[in-house]
């Protein structure tokens, strides 16, 4: 995470982005970027990387997170807004050393038992937690996307967050109002991993429903891996340009991962698998049962889906169709045929 050196005022990690000028370079050029999940994670998520995940309470890149665990990646810094099960799994597997964000847990089902165990007891390793407010987490990605070292805000003033987060600086307004401001340093992750409904081979990624901060994370990161429910043609993407929230020139890799957010929901595709969540909440309560859970579920994604079962997945699709209206896309779109 980029922050200002408190003595010199220099930026400690701010890196210029090729996308800041809108000029794609290298792996972000206009070309076919499709690859498989194992290759994408191995290439763009090395040990010691800083990483941001897309989605929030939906479209979470769960399959990508499980692949990170499967590859036994370690020493990660997670820069985020709010994160649920995938983060708890990664912490329990020993992948994460530091978290900067506003909230972690497993939503309505249970606490984040692995996160709590890591913070309180150092198991499996000590986790450095650096809190920001919900608004502050958005601002740190806004700063990264704008390629500026920080964004000032009144959020977090009169709280103890700046006291416990060494990255947050409280200063007097330099323009003379006399008010204090909190400086939220830019988040510039090495990689952002973002799950979307569909993308074309070039990397134009479409999101239906809540975009959260994903458009900012894509512009703030050095590299972007897009996983998607479906890879579709560029012509299909062009029929609904208003849904394209991440342009090709921000993307390095595109991976088709059906049910890539399971057990979370993906708007327009499938509902959340609440029984799976409940089981995880129970089995993550102690170290032995969680280790058994890892052995059972940290497998290649195709195997994971086989273990879930086609009937259960089809039920989640039917539930989503009954609960939510489909987004306003043309019935002629190839990805919507039969849905």
Automatic annotation (TrEMBL):
The keyword tRNA-binding does not apply. One of its GO terms (molecular function) is CoA-transferase activity. Pfam families: CoA_trans. Keywords: Transferase. Residues 1-36 are annotated as: Disordered. It comes from the Archaea. InterPro entries: CoA_trans_fam_I (IPR004165), NagB/RpiA_transferase-like (IPR037171). This is CoA transferase subunit A.
């Amino acid at each position: 995470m980029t922050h200002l050196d408190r003595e010199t005022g220099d930026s400690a990690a701010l890196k210029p982005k090729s996308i800041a000028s809108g000029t794609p370079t290298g792996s972000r050029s206009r070309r076919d970027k499709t690859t498989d999940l194992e290759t994408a994670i191995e290439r763009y998520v090395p040990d010691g990387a800083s990483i941001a995940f897309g989605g929030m309470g939906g479209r979470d890149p769960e399959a990508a997170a499980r692949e990170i665990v499967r590859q036994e990646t370690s020493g990660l810094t997670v820069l985020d807004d709010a994160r649920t099960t995938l983060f708890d799994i990664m912490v329990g597997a020993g992948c994460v050393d530091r978290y900067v964000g506003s909230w972690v847990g497993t939503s309505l089902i249970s606490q984040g038992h692995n996160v709590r165990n890591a913070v309180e007891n150092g198991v499996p390793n000590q986790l450095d937690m650096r809190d920001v407010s919900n608004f502050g987490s958005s601002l740190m990605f806004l700063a990264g996307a704008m390629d500026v070292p920080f964004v000032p805000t009144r959020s977090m003033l009169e709280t103890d967050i700046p006291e416990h987060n060494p990255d947050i600086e409280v200063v007097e307004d330099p323009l003379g109002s006399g008010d204090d401001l909190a400086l939220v340093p830019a988040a510039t992750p090495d990689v952002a991993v973002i799950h979307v409904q569909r993308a074309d081979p070039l990397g134009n990624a479409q999101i239906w429903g809540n975009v959260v901060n994903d458009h900012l994370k894509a512009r703030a990161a050095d590299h972007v891996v897009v996983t998607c429910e479906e890879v579709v043609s560029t012509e299909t993407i062009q029929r609904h340009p208003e849904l394209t929230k991440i342009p090709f020139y921000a993307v390095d890799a595109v991976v088709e991962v059906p049910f890539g957010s399971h057990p979370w929901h993906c708007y327009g595709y499938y509902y959340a698998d609440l029984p799976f969540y409940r089981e995880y909440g129970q089995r993550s309560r102690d170290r032995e049962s969680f280790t058994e859970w890892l052995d059972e579920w940290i497998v290649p994604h195709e195997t994971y889906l086989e273990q879930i079962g086609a009937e259960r997945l089809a039920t989640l699709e039917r539930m989503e169709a009954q609960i939510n209206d489909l987004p306003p896309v043309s019935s002629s779109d190839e990805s919507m045929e039969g849905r």
